[in-house]
Amino acid sequence: TIELAADNVDHARRAAAAAIADVQRIEAKYSRYRDDSVTTRINRAAGGAPVAIDAETVALLRYADQCHALSGGRFDITSGVLRRAWDFRRDPPALPDPHALAEAVALIGWQDVEWDEHAVRLPRAGMEIDFGGIGKEYAADRAATLCLDAGVRHGLVNLGGDLRALGPQPDGSPWRIGIRHPRGQHAAIAGIDLADGALATSGDYERYLEIDGRRYCHILDPRTGMPVRAWQSISVVAPLCVVAGSCATIAMLL
Predict the structure, then answer these.
(1) Which of 172, 142, 245, 254 is nearest to 202 (CA)?
(2) What percent of the chain has pLDDT above 90?
(3) d(CA 238, CA 230)
(4) Number of C-alpha atoms within 13 angstroms, CB side, residue 11?
């Protein structure tokens, strides 16, 4: 959702339309679910020749590299291969096959990826990159930037719970953001006032398995392939949504 306050309805609609179009552009460009995306093209070439990339993709890789370094290697955009072993929709729920999990872990390794300002190469066949940890948050920031460039000074962008505020509400008061209780779907555990900047939450409650009373969530440690267990939910406020989101995920992983 995008909520905007502008001098007239047409102004708000034009700004929102530009923002929505750019979110759709980013999804089409980086989604791992699309055959024609940059991500799919890079992954298909794993073990082969380098793939040419543009400045926007280089910037995302550079940020992912920084997150990898700051997290001691735990934030790793090559860890999406763990989805091959984990099925969080399986009924009845079951833990992954140990051999399949070990094979997936062996394909993880951002430090082995070869990249520069012009191209990227995944050195081992079967490796993948996945922008899921930063892509949606980057899209929220881009949407907010386009609205600001259009002259909108009051608004809120919400992409699946990753939020970016464009200044306060029109009366000057902050946006009141409820933080979902990690064990109560329709309950709030906290509220945060946000007049500018971004808020993102990472938790163990969106996708998970429960087996013998123990919860296995979708946030996976790339060193072991196993889910994190320390925290139920972490929310971060930051100037940019991509920073809030990655820091929340890194905090869960640490």
Answers:
(1) 245
(2) 98
(3) 22
(4) 13
